[in-house]
Amino acid sequence: MPSIVPSIVPPIPPPMLGGETPRDPAAWPDLPWQAESVPQLGPGRPGKDGRIELCLGRGDRIGRTVIRSLRHQPPLQMGRLLHPDPACPEIGYCYLAMLTGGLVQGDRLHVRIALEPGARAHVTTLSATKVYGMERNGAAQRVELTCGPGSFLEWWPDPVIPFRGARFWQEVGLTVDPDAHLLYGDLVLPGRVTAGEQHDYAFYRSRVTARSPDGRRLFVDTQALAPPPAGAGPIRTTLPSDRQVVGTVYVLTRSPALPALLDKLRRRLAASATVGTVGGDGIRGVLAGCSLLPAGCGIVVRFLACDGPAGRAAMAAMQAGVRQHLLGVDAPLACSTRKC
User: Fold this and answer.
1) Strand 139-147's sheet: what is its strand order?
2) Chain-wide mean pLDDT for the chain?
3) What are the CA-CA distances from residue 61 to residues 44, 66, 90 (Å)?
4) HEC profile of the chain
5) Which of 64, 119, 158, 209 has the greatest number of C-beta atoms within 10 Å?
6) Residue 205 has pLDDT above 90, yes or no
7) Is 309 exposed, middle or buried (0-12, 13-18, 19+ CB in 10 A)?
C-alpha cells in the first residue's frame, strides 16, 4: 500500500537557536498578540514549539492500525499505539501528552495526523489541556487531521480548561475523503470552578475548517467565546447559570443513513435537558442542538452541560451512538467512565 506521508507530513524544521519570534509568523496570521514579546521564553524557542506529526496505516495480518511514521517534539509527546478494544481490535489508540502540564504565554502547538486508506484510530490526551493566565502574547494550537478512503478517526481530547486571564487560539483543519468517517469532539470548561472562575479568560477562539481532498471547502465554524462583541456581556452572563460547559461534536461522513443518525443523536440528548434528570445513557443536564452540515457532509452538535462529568457523559453517549451506527460496535467502557 503506498504511503501518503510525503504529501501531508513534511519534515519538522530544526529548532530555533534564539530570538523570541515564531520561526514562521505567517503560520499564525490571525493572532491578535502576534507582535507581543515574551519576557521569558518566546514562541519558537526550545520547549515552546510542540509538534506531533503522525501517519497511521492498516498494516498487520488482522488489519490492525499501525504507525507508518511518527515525529514528536517537546513539549508534545505520544506514547505507544495500543489496541485495547476487543470489540474493534483494528482501532489504534493514540495518547498525546503535554509534558509541561499546560499552556503558558508564547506556547505554539502543531498536531498533524493522517490516516491511510482503511486505517482506524482514536486519538485522545492523557489529561485536560490547562491554559494558564497570561500577561503577554498568548498560546495557540493548530490541528490538521487527514482521513484517506475507508478510514475512521476519532479526535477525542480531554477538555480545555482556560484559567482566568488565559489567551488561547485554536485553528483546526479537517480533510476528509468522501468514503471516510471523522468524529471530532471539543469540550470547554469554564475554568477552575472551585476557585470561583466562570469563563474569566481573556481570549478564546476556535476555528474549524473542513475540506474535501480536492481542496473544496465544506464549512467553516468559528467559536468565539471571549472577548465579547462590542456592547455584549461576557459569555458567563449569556449562558444559563447552571450550564456553563460548552461542547461541540462534528461527525463528518457521507453515510446514506445520515438523517437516521441525526435523529438518533437528538433522541439521546433530548431526554436529559432538565438538570438532575438522567437519561438512558447516563446523560444529565444537557441542552443540545443538532443539525446537518452544509452539502450533506455530516452532522454538528453543540451543547451546554451543567458540569464537567455531565459534559463527558454527553460526549461518551454521542461517541457510542456514532460508533454503533457507522461501525456496528459500541464505544469501550473506559471511554464512558473517565472523569474530568
Assistant:
1) 65-73, 49-58, 108-115, 139-147, 167-176, 203-211, 217-226
2) 83
3) 42, 11, 10
4) CCCCHHHHCCCCCCCCCCCCCCCCHHHCCCCCCCCCCCCCCCCCCCCCEEEEEEEEEECCCCCCEEEEEEEEECCEEECCCECCCCCCCCCEEEEEEECCCCECCCCEEEEEEEECCCCEEEEEECCCEEECCCCCCCEEEEEEEEECCCCEEEECCCCEEECCCCEEEEEEEEEECCCCEEEEEEEECCCCHHHCCCCCCCEEEEEEEEECCCCCEEEEEEEEEECCCCCCCCHHHHCCCCCCEEEEEEEECCCCCHHHHHHHHHHHHHCCCCCCCECCCCCECEEEEEEECHHHCEEEEEEEECCHHHHHHHHHHHHHHHHHHHHCCCCCHHHHHCCC
5) 119
6) yes
7) middle
The C-alpha cell 510542540 sits at 50
Judge contact between 146 and 173, C-beta under 8 A: no
User: What is the structure's pLDDT at 78?
Assistant: 93
Q: Quick count: other Cβ atoms within 10 Å of Cβ 65? A: 28
Q: Which three cell numbers, joined as nine digits, stand for 35?
A: 507582535
125-138 pLDDT, tens per residue? Answer: 999 999 999 988 88
For the ranges 56-65, 274-283, 329-338, the maximum mean pLDDT occurs at 56-65
Closest CA to 160 of 178, 134, 187, 140: 187
Instruction: Summarize pLDDT for 275-298 with one digit per residue, the tens.
Output: 444 444 556 778 999 999 998 899
**Chain centroid to CA 130:** 14
Give the three cell numbers for residue 153.
Answer: 478517526
Whose cell is 482506524? That residue is 120
**Are 269 and 286 a contacting pair, CB within 8 Å?**
yes
